[in-house]
Amino acid sequence: MSATPRREPDGRDRILDIADSLAETGEPAAGERERRAGWISFRLGGQSFALPVTHVRGVHRAGHITPLPNSPPTVRGLTNLRGRVIAVIDLATELELGATAVDERSRILDAEIGRRRLGLLTERTDSLIRVQAADIEPLAGDETAPVARHATGQVATPAGRVVLLDPEQILEGA
Amino acid sequence: MNQELAELLNDFISEAEERLARVEGILMTIAESPPALRTSGLEELRRELHTLKGNSGMMGFDDMQSLAHAMEDRVQSVDPAALELAPLLADLDHFKHLVAEAASGGDAGDVERQEASIRVSLESLDELLDLSAELVVARNRLDLATRDGLERAAGNGSAGGRGLEAWKGVDESRRALDKLLAAVQRRIERLRMVPLRKVFTGLRRLVHDERERAGKRVRLTTHGEDTPLDNSLVELAGEVLGHLVRNAVVHGIEPVEQRRLAGKPATGTVLLSAAVRAHSVVIEVIDDGAGIDRRAILAAAERAGLEGAEEMALQELIFHPGLSSRADADSSAGRGIGLAAVGASARRFGGAIEVDSRPGVGTRVRLQLPLAVAVTEALLVEVGEQEYALPAAAVLETVEIDTADRSRGAVTLGDREIPLVDLASFFELDRESARGAYGVILEAEGRQRSLIVDELGDLREIVVHRVEDAAAVPGVGGTTILGDGRVVLILDPPVLTAAAAAA
Prior knowledge:
- Chain A is of the alpha+beta class.
- Chain A is built from five helices and ten strands, in the order ααβββββαβββαββα.
- Helix content of chain A is 17%, strand content 41%.
- In chain A, the strands form two sheets. Chain A has a five-stranded mixed sheet with strand order 8-1-2-10-9. In chain A, strands 3-6-7-5-4 form a five-stranded mixed sheet.
- The radius of gyration of chain A is 15 Å and the shape is globular.
- By secondary structure, chain B is an alpha+beta fold.
- Chain B has a five-stranded mixed sheet, with helices on one face.
- In chain B, a hairpin with a 2-residue loop joins β13 and β14 (447-453).
- The longest helix of chain B has 34 residues, at 122-155.
- Residues 107-115 and 324-337 of chain B have low confidence and may be disordered.
- The interface between A and B is medium-sized, with 21 and 29 residues.
């Protein structure tokens, strides 16, 4: 059991500050960083997924999303993240898990992939997990399945299996 | 020089520069007005010169003080028709020179000026602006909550007495906060934005000088001087527009005799107009001159050894690097030579230039510049439970529409029929076509359409936020954030007015 889950700090309207989380977990030494990378885990279609913390600038409560006409179904619309207008992507649609409903627990990951800022809509965010390269297992099943096409592998955690997503593949879909 | 004095000097210099720019603008307006309409300009001129004289004296700049005095004398009790501009303009240039000298001359002051400024990245400014926009959102929420609190406390009658006092205290603090916030926002915006007037004034002077030199009759008309422009684009805009305006006066507008023969008014017109179009500033230079002679350009291309020139569009030819910086070809080609460098620098800043010309009729050059941050006035409307912002510059009028209008797909405005446009079918939204009771008449690029809307909101200042994903959608020009934090799409009038009419 090498991936250590950590509860998201409570507080209904609280922004999970990635920098703080890193500080609390203890900033790994330079050599160690490779081996124990931080991932943010979240739920889509009832399943657990994670993105490298290096691609996430922050986590925000899902506020009002303005639909954007004539855009792909993965684009849910536009939202205001701290004064900046950002496109909200529903990865669940891309992964063929059905559209994500927006409620009290929904969170938007403020992601930066390449030079693009994206808001990734999630059912909820779970925790910051530490993953060692050696613990990453290949996904079972069909390699051409939508989830497999977007993933680099999976890890087992006390809370269950977490699929590690490939940020570059997300950008392809969006 | 002590700190206080250095600051005082800095203030004086920037104010003097502003006033001199205003004086130049007024002089140009006077130059273009008939004597009967010069009086108010002269009044304003006297006031500006008087203030300049006073300020210069206070700062101990005797040379500036006496120069301002001399200029005042020139305009004091002169007959508006007999006003001589040339000596005033010469004085003005001298004055600018003195101010520039004072700005660079004060050695101790210079060091302190350097120390008093630091470089800040545009990104940091953007972040600051974004955050201040969020502050406004929070302020608006506080406004609503306070109003609600006051009303409830007042509604409780005598029982609410102490509550009411408390709410009044909150309201007072809120108002103080409001003022501070507005000041902070203005400062931040000012850090980046300047009105195009600054650029236009220089161009008016340029037209004045060039037409005197060329012995032509040219009138410069300007529109949209208040259009904000990103500070970092001012220099570029001045350079590009200077080139275009000079071209229009020197090569575009024909000599008086030639205009007469062509049946045109003796005085040629150069129109300079600017407007914010969603996420960009569009500046057009239009002249009613001879137009660009394609054959002359082709001849120049041949001399330059440019291959395949016959196949190229005028646009492509004019901005072709092979034709640039060949001063010798300039006079024979008529105009349009040397624009390659201009086009290249505009593109470097994310802008674009388009040329449209008809021989004998005139030329239109359109310069489009990006707006990292733009504040514009917009009309808010509601269509199918979504709010949209319409750039106010494109809104002609709002009308009520009835079933008869809807069934024939048009409204009547005066003696014209204006086709209706339904946003639902335009955006292929999955809902019934609009049955809205109002029409917003939009005009863009010479076309008019009436957009069907359910509700008319108010006219307000909005900050334009550019988003790639939104810009990719035809009909959407940008986005803005409302007081309650919601994102609203800004529609793009030129695309909407090109839309097919709703049946």
